Known about the structure:
This protein has 24 helices and 17 strands. The chain is an alpha+beta fold. It starts with 8 loop residues before the first helix and ends in a 7-residue tail after the last helix.
Amino acid sequence: MTTEFLDNKIFSIVSQTAEQMGVRAYVIGGYVRDCFLGRPSKDIDIVVEGSGIELAEKVGAAVHSTVSVFKNFGTAMLRYHGIEIEFVGARRESYRRDSRKPIVEDGTLEDDQLRRDFTINAMAFSLQKDDFGSLVDPFGGIRDLDKGIIRTPLDPDTTYSDDPLRMIRAIRFATKLSTQERKFTIVPESLESIARNRERLRILSKERIVEELNKMLVCDRPSMGFRLMEETGLLDYILPQLSRLKGVESVDGRGHKENFSHTLEVVDNVAAFEKEAIKAGRLKDYLFEDGVETVKVRTEPYLWLRWAALLHDIGKPASKRYDQHTGWTFHGHEVIGARMIPKIFNEMKMPLNEKMKYVQKLVGLHLRPIALVTEEVTDSAVRRLLFDAGNDIDDLMLLCNADITSKNPRKVEKLRHNFELVKEKLVEVEAKDAVRNWKNPITGEYVMKVFGIEPCREIGILKEHVKNAVLDGVIGNNFEEADILMREKAAEMGLLPKE
Length: 499
């Protein structure tokens, strides 16, 4: 018996309500799995041998909670003390070859467990009065959980062909559930089936694929998932631009860094560094609503920082060149990569808003702090970095620190030491010059007013001249000095103030 997992009052309420209706109800899926893993869970799935919607409505009335009904899916959901509870009728499913949308019929608990993706997600707790809390586990999910394996209840070819999203879910669960103490693995016959059925991914929507990738990216060690997708051939269908980073080319016995492995190492580094920074309260999120900026301390992994890490070197294949004197180079890969981001986001049906622009910015700037590490750290260079990065400077610095990888520990230690000096310089210059999110004190409207001119090329020249002077430290970051400099430059150009 596992009644200790069902001590929340909601379970006894569901049990009593189901008994009054004359139906049988069970807790099933992720909540059951997470109970045995000792993981917190705020999502509970209830399967009913009868109408899930009707049971949800009666439970909602009993606990005074609003019930959301989704008739197309035969489900209903309510919230109870911060917990989200979803109700569904037990069902039997069959599939057509050209669609992952099943033909659904009413069924029993056994039918419902058969349609589940993996044995560890098919376990259920009984909510019946006579055996309350007993585990219903027809496929040995508890055994698989103990061994740390991902296995399908049915033949894997059937499971994956019916719904190919389950192939990505298998990899996502292996990534999510693995810890330092225990690694979850997909059984060999299931991995082989994923490779055999990879072309079935073509029937999936990009949105559903991205949803799984996003969940993978915010895991503690995302690299595991992307390696499995590469090994099974899924990555070629999902994100071919990333697959192209794989491999090492040699000329005259000289090879370059294996960029795919490097990228995954950077993603894992970002996950570790961000977790540490969140714990220390060092990262902030800047939110804009109705033109008002709200600053909050970050408490959860930032998905788009993970995407920036994953795509930071995406421009390397297009920029790769071999020089007989210097060897392999990837000059300009950050510029090429930044240009690729909108197309990748568009193809993947991801947002083309400020989130895409954030990723594009970090990809385009990711070499700048490293350049400061290897060169003299001037105030001017730091001002320009602060100006270009704005509020994203801390995330950029975290990404660049994660990008320091080498098999030579001394090299890494030296670079990381110098990197700390750059961070100190950033703080010093920002405190002195307030350049982050800097706005030019000389506006186009002001130039037109002073010189009595219409919009023209000269306005841009004057504004750029002032901007460069401030960032280079030629003048202070204030209107008075900027105005004097603007008038001097205008005089050189033959522009005189209006009488």
